[in-house]
Each structure stands twice: as C-alpha cells, then as structure tokens.
C-alpha cells in the first residue's frame, strides 16, 4: 500500500479492512473470483455427521451480513456450491449459480427447528463443537461471526475456535483432524464439476469425508463425459448442486473477491474470475 502511494509499484492487492478503507478510491478494482469458502463437517464424529446440525448452523448464518458487515472486502454471499460466473446454460446462457438459485438464505426459524431435531437425535441438550480455521484475518473474522451467531440463535450449542497457520490447517484438514473445518477451493477451469467434486467421497483433493450414495451416483454420471451430451451433463451438475444444498453435506459461505489498486496511468489491465489480473495488453497511457 505504501509502495503504491509512493508510485514505486503500479498494482497492489488489498485484503481485509484495507478494501473497506479504499472503497471510494477510484483506483480500486474488485473482481469476484472462482473461489468459494465453505464448511466441512467431519463424518467420523456422530455429532458433526448429523445432517440436522449442518442445516441448523447453515440456516442460522446470514451470509449477506457476513460479507457486507464483517468481511467488507468485496466477497459476496454464496448461493450454492458453485460460484457465480463459473458456467452458463448451453441453451439459454443463464448463469449456473443463478439457475440453481439461492439455497442458502438465512432462516433462523428453520435453524432452530433443525437444531431441536439434532438435539433429539444426538440425545443431548448441550453440545460443543470446534471450528478449525486459518490464522489469517478473514478466517478469524468468519469464525468469530459464526461463534456469535450460534450462541444467539442455537441455545445449547457452543462453537469453540481453533486458528492455525496455513500449512498446519491444510495438514489437519487432510488428516481429518477437525470437527468443523473452514475450507475453500479455487478452480483452474470453467467447469462446475470442479467445485462439486469437493463434496465427493474419496476425492483426494477434498478434505470432506461426507458420504451420500445419491450424490456419488450424480458425480459418477457427471464424470462420464462420453455418455452424456453437454446439456445433459450441465443438467446433471445443476441437479447435483441442488441436492448437495438440500443435504448440506458441505455448507458454502461466500464467494471470494480479489481487490487491487491500479495506477490510473496504466491501461489495458483486465481482471477475470478465473485467472485474476491479465497483463498482456498493458500499456502506459500517454
């Protein structure tokens, strides 16, 4: 930031509160990227494998409040597992995420109902679970927000927080050494299947060990690219995303945004959801 102000660098990325502080800066460029942050629940534990617990936590969260009032960094509320801008309907051109619809709207009444069901199924009135996060500012803010919401909306449920450095976070996720894990995924291609696979049981890239026969069948069909047409595969991916959101096997929170300050003397700089900054047509304005 200081180097940018001193004209020693022409582009600098901002995170966290620096984005909010520069909201009115005409040099600020914010782009929604193809990365979702989401919650994974360890199915090895009876408590965190409980579907009604997943739903209770998910519907208690106000993702609009989380992104606009807590993070304030340009990130937007997730609607489903697949972020906006990832794919379009091959027939109509409609955005994939918009076609799935917003399946993650806050609903505290439903959250309380699911929580009561979870308490009944688990045979406990008081339950404590731990949320594992990275130790970066955004992750810790999400954890603190969730902790406050759970305390307010789901009486009897206690959410403790454990923030660790990135390398340790990745290792603990890979080892399934968590109860609830704040994770995320960035894709390298325009294909919703790349996000949907993060809920696939046995996928080496996924730290989730959620297992559901219906979902596994849908993923197998999606991966069989020789059997289904482009439109058929697209429809299967829509079905899979809707089913995943119905079951809340993984609970998406928000789509990440990337914010940069760009020197006004530079032209030809572009930003894409997939690959970030594009420099190949950059030039100095006369």
TrEMBL record:
Residues 5-201 form the Solute-binding protein family domain. Keywords: Signal, Transport. GO terms for molecular function: peptide transmembrane transporter activity. GO terms for cellular component: cell envelope. GO terms for biological process: peptide transport. It holds the Pfam family SBP_bac_5. It comes from the Bacteria. It is found in: Cell envelope. Its main location: other. Belongs to the bacterial solute-binding protein 5 family. This is Solute-binding protein family 5 domain-containing protein. It comes from Secundilactobacillus malefermentans.
